[in-house]
Amino acid sequence: MVRSAVLFKLRSGTTQEQINAITSAVQALHIPGLVSMTFGPDLGLREGNMSFAFVVDFEDEPAFRAYDADEHHNHIRRDLIAPVAERIERCQFQI
Amino acid sequence: MVRSAVLFKLRSGTTQEQINAITSAVQALHIPGLVSMTFGPDLGLREGNMSFAFVVDFEDEPAFRAYDADEHHNHIRRDLIAPVAERIERCQFQI
């Protein structure tokens, strides 16, 4: 399986509604081979953390590539994530 | 449960032996309430990614705090991770 971990630093002033719009839209994506998705805001247990994380598991690399290239996903990135994300860090690894 | 996602940008020249020393040492930590641990190098599926990820799950916040404050963990950070990590990004979230 491929695990994708994506961390966001959100701009100050980002609202809960903007975050909810992102998570709802990502959850609504239909990607064959997407096995599980977890996400949430940083719990504030350490200083200097990123603001929000997604960890998404895929059956294999083609499933991740389909998610990465998905047209609706790209709309979400452009219309919902880009306006609120100051910085995004990513890593995909085998599990 | 608390999921901790930590992404590393490793310095160029970091060896597989240095990475193995880190993962072996982290796996050897004895932390009650540490439920599962996944890690691995970035698969190169996207440009600009971080180099390496750990995603570690804990029963609850006290278990994460024990891991975070663990003396051996701090030795690993100082002696094994700091010499090879150019940048580290973190997020802990509820799952």
Please tell me about this protein's structure.
Two copies of one chain form a homodimer. The first copy, chain A, is of the alpha+beta class and 95 residues long. Chain A has three helices and four strands. The first copy, chain A, has helices at 16-27, 61-69, 71-81; strands at residues 2-10, 34-41, 52-58, 85-94. In chain A, strands 2-3-1-4 form a four-stranded antiparallel sheet. In chain A, helix 1 (16-27) packs antiparallel against helix 3. The longest helix of chain A has 12 residues, at 16-27. The interface between A and B is medium-sized, with 30 and 30 residues.
What's the structural blueprint in terms of helices and strands?
Two copies of one chain form a homodimer.
Chain A: E1 2-10, H1 16-27, E2 34-41, E3 52-58, H2 61-69, H3 71-81, E4 85-94
Antiparallel strand pairs in A: 1-3, 1-4, 2-3
Short summary of the structure?
Two copies of one chain form a homodimer. Chain A is an alpha+beta fold and 95 residues long.
Radius of gyration of chain A: 13 Å
The number of E-state strands of chain A comes to 4
User: If strands are numbered along the chain, what order do they take across the biggest sheet of chain A?
Assistant: 2-3-1-4
**What pattern of helices and strands is seen along the backbone of chain A?**
EHEEHHE
Main interface: chain pair and counts? A-B, 30 and 30 residues
Structural category of chain A is alpha+beta
Binned strand content of chain A: 35-45%
Distance between the termini of chain A: 5 Å
How would you describe the oligomerization state of the chains in this entry?
A: homodimer
DSSP summary: helix tally of chain A: 3
Major β-sheet annotation of chain A:
4 strands, antiparallel
